[in-house]
Records
---
Amino acid sequence: MNFIVKCVIFVGLYAVIQAVTLHANLREIIQHREEKPENAEMLKKLKAEIALKRKYSEPYGGEPGKAYFKYFNEMILAPALGEYLIKLQQQKIGNEEQVKLFENLINELGKIRQDMANVTGGEDMALLNNFGLRVRETYIRYESIKDFPAWNTYLHNKLEKLAGKKDGEKIGCYELIDKLVKINGGENFRVEKISDTVAYMGPQEGNTSLGYLQINCHRTSDATQLQLFLAPASNALFKEVAKKFFAVLNAGKVKPEILLEKMASFFLSYSHVAIFMRGQASIGEALLRGLAYAQGYSLSYSKEWTGPSYPSADMHALSTFNESQFIKDFMQNVKLSILSKT
């Protein structure tokens, strides 16, 4: 075995050992926060309420389940992830190691998301087990937008506005497709008509890092049924997401608007690459909060980017096919506030 091969093996083993150690630290930080008296008491209370709701078959633990999910994400996971990322900032990490460490972090967050799903429960165990489960590289994640009322309404209105609908005017689905194809989107998006009833709306040619909308028309209705397909999580795309993640983490002392711009670029790429079967949106938002914490900020959203009455940040990302437009929207709807010293 020559010297170069030995060096490559050593670097690979070091990266693995480093990743295992750091991720063990993440679990330890989470456990420490869970054991704080105020957190332990609240988590115990919410779990007891969830157990009662599950007895009566309320999906995902009903309102207590939502409260647990919110509390754990904001009071446990975000600060714990922030503390972990501060440790990561202190490491000297090469480009290849960055990809490996990011993948290990993603896998760990997937397990944590699965643990959360097991606490809240659900009606369908097969679907429940998909939370935090990594997808195969050739898998194309599929979302039926009609299952999310706020997102469905938002996209209907967005498409009709793009098509030039006037107040009080009614645009049929076939006409909507024709109008969108006619105007196209210049630098922002392109629309390709597949048939009278189907069109694809997505990024410009050559941009394979973003997903696309499939617009389907019902033959018996003027309504549109929107379906969303996402780009598969190829190695090349995943590396790009990891690169953008570390660009935020290692941004240093920069103005909040510059940090937000880097966070927006990362989040758009992350949202459009299929990584998890379910739970990708909440894991992505946990990463955003953790990154903000590591830079000394807390993160909050405008009302228009807060579900369930409005589309979430992830849904807005999936509805945008132009990075500069998404960065602009992100900076208008995401706020960074300096963390309290207490």
---
Amino acid sequence: MLFLALFFLLCSVIAFSQNKKAVREKRAFFRDFFYSGSTKQKDFNEILPFTNNYGWAVLKVNIKGKAYHFIFDTGAPTSISEDLVKELNLKPLTSINLEDALGKSISKNVYRMNSISLGNITFLNEGCVGFDFSELSMASCIKIDGIIGSNLMKKCYWQINYQDNSIGLSSSLPEIPTNAQKLSFKEAEEGAIPVLELTIADTTVFALLDYGSNGVSTIPKAVFFRNKSKEDNVASGKGAALTAMNQKLESKMYRVFSNTFKLGNVTFNHQLFDILPNDAPPPLLVLHF
């Protein structure tokens, strides 16, 4: 059986195609606000169960003695619902322009939570973004109160186990199984989102690792058809090729079982991809193997 060991202790921010002043300002914002939290415990190793709800990993968290449902999502900053903002009586500290998976920019208020606990581990002074999760709650058939995002994940190491629906978090690097494959990654410029190299035939692209998607991985149309093999089975149709922040990308879409997908030196046969328009946002990796 193949294991992929992805341990997240996200470090330096990687900047793409921005002027130096904008990069410095963005780095300063994330360093001083989003990355400024900490864990109350300094030495810990916790394993938490999660519910696989329509492909979303839903964790129970505790805030001020009350339980809430948060989605585990490497592809987004830590976020809380607008209902929870009101319940906790949080006041906006600033606002931030975020770009969603459709490439659309949207301004959102930013808050700070004094504490949020996952099992016995408490995270202090975490920055978070306010969102409307009503449509996501409807789609998942459970009230979603927030997202455990990449800036909170930066505080420790994480292991995701889809075989027994558990997530481990620890203050030190766990022992990596001898049969695991190690994959290196960089970070996107915002939110410490992991970026991995995805190889299709002879073409390598950078893809965002997104555990918060319940869909399938995506690649640009030009990249796929330039490297398509005769064994790839392609189906086409028209509809919502991608959905994010309550918006939809309507387009002719292709779905394919591809034999040409590699991460590092690991080849995955018959993996499902959505083929998106060439002007769509960067590819997504959705690792529900």
---
Amino acid sequence: MFRARTLALGFPLLTAFSCSSAPVAAPPAGWLAPAGLPAEDVILLAAGEPVNLPDSPQTLTAPEAVTLALRHSPLLQADLARLRAAMAEAEQTHLLPNPLLTVALRLPEAGGGAEWDLGLSGALTSLLNRPGRQRAADARVHAAAATALETAFAEMEATRIAHARAVEQEALVPLRLRQEEIAMEILRRTRQRRSAGEAGTSEERGAEHAAARATAEANRAHVAARAARLELSARIGSPGGAADWSLTPVGLPGPLLTDEDWIRAAAERNPSVERARWLALAEQEEAAIAGAIVREGLEAGAVAEKEAEWSAGPAISVPIPIFDDGTSRRHLAAAEATTAAHLLVAAQRSAQAETRAFWEGFRAALSRREDLLKREIPPLVALLETAKSAALAGEVSPADVLRAEDALLTARASALLVELEAHLAFARLLRSAGGLPQTHQPAAR
């Protein structure tokens, strides 16, 4: 006796699901452009790069440093690999489930012909849940892309800060060295005056303290400049490199937009907000799937059997929800969706708060720099010229000229440090706002 039983999914149903599926979502074109690079310039490497990359440039500008940092960032590479994994998972949700073929052979005890059972089955549940699974997986692809973009902005921020710090610290070194020379010269003249009985011990001790402090500041400037170069070298993929490139300063843009404009840009383009938004959407889709009436293990198809003659008919396999009615899964999915919704609000608030804070810091640094350059330094320049003229006329001592020059150098050093603060605040503002608005163009320094 030959008996064949088949439990299979209807091919028209399979075809309908296959035709209605959308292609796997991919990151939008130019998704890395706000970070300074087109997407095609950032390639996922199959293996890790060498610890120290060769061929460092002779001259390193801030845009070149950012480009090198983004191309060779292992953290960005790891996020790109996670993005590829998310795309692979999304591709998996767009595939039809494989049918299960079952073959059973039974030999009657009394002898005679063997009886065969053939079964071809497939899970109907996966087909019914397929659209929601696809939307959830596609949302996670966008979330992974936003995570990679967030890492790119963090790398860009750190590299811009390292470059600005290296430029400003190196510009500070000659000022500190000149102040050390001035302090040593004042100390020498003070000792000469004390030997002549024209200065007391307290004045000499004060000059000695000023000279020691100037020497410490000069040494600190040297160490800070070298440390900034080493940090920048590590950022571009060469922590053991010579870091002997020539650095090109970068200008600061003016406050062309208001804080509301920056906050609006952060709400629209901040990568952490985008990631939270897509994850919230994915959790909503998962909650909708968990709340559906469709049960796990639901199967449908047809059964055919042949004994004396063929007989066929529809068949359905439905799990009986005696022990598990899906309530726990629905509660879990709803809780995760609620968590994602709250995290989205937290990301939006954090982006708005830090963007406002960075904007205020950037504007304050620009204002302070403007005051130094236009209100404090010019009078000190005039004072130095006046002191020089008075010294030639014998009205003041050469030490007074040196003190006037030291005051001018202190103001110029303050201007450099304030400019560094502005660079740091602006780099953080770029990350928080999701990139530089098109209306902003860096001004010449």
